[in-house]
Design brief:
- By secondary structure, this protein is an alpha+beta fold.
- It has 2 domains: 103 residues; 106 residues, Roll (PH-domain like).
- Helix content is 61%, strand content 17%.
- The protein is built from 3 helices and 7 strands.
- Strands 4-5-6-3-2-1-7 form a 7-stranded mixed beta sheet.
- The longest helix has 102 residues.
- It is rod-shaped and about 180 Å long.
- It starts with a helix and ends with a strand.
- The relative contact order is 0.08.
Length: 212
């Protein structure tokens, strides 16, 4: 009886061991099969993702290069803009200076004689006559003379300093060919005459012409 029971126990134990071993083998085979399946399925996906990642990295590098180039262009344009702004500021100052100077510049007052001749008086800002032209037969000649005064008034060599028969000082303004363009009033002193010349140099560039 005991021997029969022992045989039964051994038989059951052997079957249990066999079942456990088979389950372990089945589990191992299932793991191996699952690993190969996962590898076959996910490896291409991973490679595709890695390729996408590399492509995105390349695009990022290219974009950074383009941004760098754009920054250089922006810096160049900013420099050009700054230069243009400086030029605009300079021109604005020139305009302001010219405007300010124009306020303190005299005028050419043109008139006709009873005989029909044309002449001009160059007047300072205070209305004082500082230069009187010779007589001209036409307005065109008169305007040419005014242009000549503008072109010659700042050349000191164009002024003929003279003394009248009654010892008064005066000057003539001449053109490059020696033609007299205008004559000053009479002055009591050389200093007064030189002040008159300085006034003609200042006011002779005026572009203001009026009829009186």
């Amino acid at each position: 009886m005991n021997q029969l029971f022992l045989q039964l126990v051994q038989s059951v134990a052997g079957n249990v061991i066999t079942i456990v071993v088979l389950e372990l083998v089945a589990a191992a085979l299932g793991f191996v099969v699952a690993w190969f399946y996962a590898r076959s399925v996910y490896t291409p996906v991973i490679k595709g993702l890695e390729a996408d990642k590399a492509n995105l990295n390349n695009q990022v590098v290219k974009l950074k290069d383009e941004i760098g180039k754009l920054d250089e262009k922006v810096n160049i344009l900013s420099g050009k803009i700054s230069g243009l702004e400086e030029q605009v500021a300079e021109k604005d100052n020139e305009i302001k200076n010219l405007t300010s100077a124009a306020i303190h510049i005299g005028k050419y007052a043109i008139s006709k004689t009873k005989g029909g001749g044309d002449y001009f008086n160059l007047k300072a800002t205070n209305g004082q006559i500082i230069l009187t032209s010779v007589m001209y037969s036409s307005v065109a000649d008169l305007n040419n003379a005014i242009d000549s005064v503008r072109g010659n008034c700042n050349d000191d060599n164009r002024y003929e300093r003279k003394i009248s028969s009654n010892n008064k000082h005066y000057f003539n303004l001449t053109s490059s060919n020696g033609q007299v363009l205008g004559r000053s009033e009479m002055y009591e002193s050389v200093a007064g005459m030189e002040n008159g010349i300085a006034s003609v140099k200042k006011n002779g560039i005026s572009t203001i012409i009026v009829e009186e």
